[in-house]
Automatic annotation (TrEMBL):
Protein name: 2,3-diketo-L-gulonate reductase
Database matches in SUPFAM superfamilies: L-sulfolactate dehydrogenase-like (SSF89733)
Presence of the UniProt keyword Oxidoreductase in the record: yes
Family matches, as InterPro entries: Mal/L-sulf/L-lact_DH-like_ah, Mal/L-sulf/L-lact_DH-like_NADP, Mal/L-sulfo/L-lacto_DH-like_sf, Malate/L-lactate_DH-like
Lineage: Bacteria, Pseudomonadati, Pseudomonadota, Gammaproteobacteria, Enterobacterales
Length: 214
């Protein structure tokens, strides 16, 4: 097995982002988070998302020049428009802004509309907890799973994160609304493996351990 260092991995990813047109700071932040995610063992939202992100940038689905714009403010509650900007930097902005509001009001609530994929949701719970704040973070996704007992996809498998600071480190829950996150299905499918437990139903309505079509 070939091993590479964290810095080599990060620098390679960063160069890919620079080649896609990201600014130096954007590329560095995004490369850091993608690399940390894979090194933490969350392969479903780390390096395997780099090519897709670059593809979305090239297609214009992610606006690398966009910045969050505040559209509503009510004391400890603020709402921003992400203008289809980079999901990671938008989510980091929202997290830091929520922490700032919490310092002032005791609680900080920030909503971000019109943004893009934030990659590993737990990243933002960790960021808040490391500063001594409990956090609840979530986002919506495209409709990719049916309601209980149904067949048609109508619900998003929305990520949900809870983080609590401890005397040393933090306790962070990062989960999907289904038995498997979409990214976990992708990782299993790419390995050519079956799911360890049935994760859904096939077209005939039977339980299946297939991670999905190639």
């Amino acid at each position: 097995m070939t091993k590479i260092s964290f810095n080599e991995m990060k620098n390679t990813v960063k160069q890919a982002f620079l080649n896609a047109g990201l600014h130096e700071k954007q590329a560095d932040i995004c490369a850091q988070i993608h690399t940390e995610t894979s090194c933490d063992g969350i392969f479903s939202h780390g390096l395997n998302r780099v090519a897709r992100f670059v593809d979305y940038v090239n297609k214009g689905w992610v606006d690398i020049n966009a910045a969050p714009e505040r559209v509503k403010s009510l004391a400890s509650l603020e709402i921003y428009d992400g203008h289809r900007g980079i999901g990671i930097t938008n989510a980091l902005f929202a997290t830091e802004r929520a922490v700032e509001l919490a310092k002032q009001y005791g609680v900080g609530i920030v909503g971000m509309r019109n943004t893009t994929h934030w990659m590993r949701g737990g990243t933002y719970g960790w960021k808040a907890a490391q500063q001594g704040y409990a956090a609840v973070c979530w986002t919506n996704t495209e409709s990719c799973m049916p309601a209980w007992g149904a067949k048609n996809t109508r619900l998003g498998n929305n990520p949900f994160v809870m983080a609590v600071p401890l005397h040393e480190g933090a306790m962070v829950l990062d989960m999907a609304m289904s038995q498997y996150a979409y990214g976990k299905l992708q990782v299993t499918r790419l390995k050519g493996e079956k799911l360890p437990f049935p994760g859904g139903y096939d077209k005939e309505g039977n339980l299946t351990d297939e991670p999905g079509p190639n």
